[in-house]
């Protein structure tokens, strides 16, 4: 349908807990879901959550084959996940640099669980149940955080490991990445 404006850090809407989806139907698919897909593609996102486009619903979309913002990330299948539930499968974490469409031009070193199980429903109302690890697990956890009003800077343990993308790249702390198509 349309590319929507992505809400940015500081917008109080991003701090709200999103509402459960009560009805999965064609209207949801043609409206919110399509807008999320269009916006994620336009912004080169690895994922997006409905609250990021101003919709208080528990819907996340994620997936990449290749992405200039995450050049070293392994492929993640395109998934539309409605009313997600997360189960951590290990206490082992891994810290990697994250960015976010709602926190543009910044990156932070974020610890995340290495292996998870997620479940919910796809856009057709069919159940989803997946075990994920690595970048796949990270992107799911990042997007589901949005549904609970959490942005990635809150997950950073060491504030010195947060900064503007260009400055981090110029200092050689992270590799240079493309931010737009």
Name some characteristics of this structure.
single chain; Peptide Deformylase; 5-stranded antiparallel sheet
Structure overview:
This protein has 181 residues and is of the alpha+beta class. The chain has a single domain (12-170), classed as Peptide deformylase (Peptide Deformylase), CATH 3.90.45.10. The chain is built from 3 helices and 8 strands. The protein has helices at residues 26-42, 134-147, 165-170; strands spanning 47-49, 59-64, 76-88, 93-100, 103-113, 115-121, 127-133, 162-164. A 5-stranded antiparallel sheet has the order 1-2-3-6-7, sandwiched between helices. A 3-stranded antiparallel sheet has the order 4-5-8. The longest helix is centred in the first third of the chain and has 17 residues, at 26-42. The mean pLDDT is 94.
**Mean pLDDT across every amino acid position:** 94
What share of residues are in beta strands? 25-35%
Q: Sketch the major β-sheet.
A: 5 strands, antiparallel
Secondary-structure class: alpha+beta
The total count of strands amounts to 8
CATH superfamily: Peptide deformylase
């Amino acid at each position: 349908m349309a590319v929507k404006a992505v809400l940015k850090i500081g917008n109080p809407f991003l701090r709200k807990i999103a509402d459960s989806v009560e009805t999965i139907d064609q209207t949801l698919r043609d409206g919110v879901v399509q807008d999320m897909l269009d916006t994620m593609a336009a912004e080169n996102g690895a994922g997006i959550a409905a609250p990021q486009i101003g919709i208080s619903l528990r819907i996340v979309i994620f997936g990449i084959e290749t992405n200039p913002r995450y050049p070293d990330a392994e492929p993640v299948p395109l998934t539309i996940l409605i009313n997600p539930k997360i189960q951590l499968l290990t206490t082992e974490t891994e810290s990697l640099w994250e960015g976010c469409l709602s926190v543009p031009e910044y990156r932070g070193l974020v610890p995340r669980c290495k292996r998870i199980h997620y479940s919910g429903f796809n856009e057709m109302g069919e159940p989803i149940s997946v075990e994920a690890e690595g970048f796949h697990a990270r992107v799911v956890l990042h997007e589901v955080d949005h549904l609970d009003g959490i942005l990635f800077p809150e997950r950073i343990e060491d504030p010195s490991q947060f900064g503007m993308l260009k400055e981090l790249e110029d200092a050689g702390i992270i590799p240079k990445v493309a931010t737009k198509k």
